[in-house]
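Morning!

This is the sequence you dropped in the shared folder:
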Amino acid sequence: MEMTHPSGTLGPIPVDMTQSRAAGSGSASGSNNMRLADLATGATARVVSVAGTDSTGSPELGRRLAELGFLPGENLRIVARGLMGREPIAIRIGTGTFALRLFEAECIRVSLEQSLRA
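The structure's back. Tokens below.
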């Protein structure tokens, strides 16, 4: 399935099926890829991949998240979390703010953004 974006056609959506829940949010190699559900409130990140075909979701979930704007390369920010830091998670991506449940946020892999301001 190809997705379109204001900058043009993106091509197929990368599906991240190789990383398990056991893969930590930081490894010895310095990788900062992690699940969206693991980000703290106020954190900014860039979408790396969307995987809607894990054990908790259906293939349509990945498509739905992509239609909302969760596409590789998009910047996002965690705006707020529900009661006791759980769900729902309010996420600002593009010009929209969306509330995701934990199982939806766990399908999205992100890379932390480093602040460029000095």
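Headline: The two ends are 40 Å apart (CA to CA).

More detail when I'm at my desk.
O.
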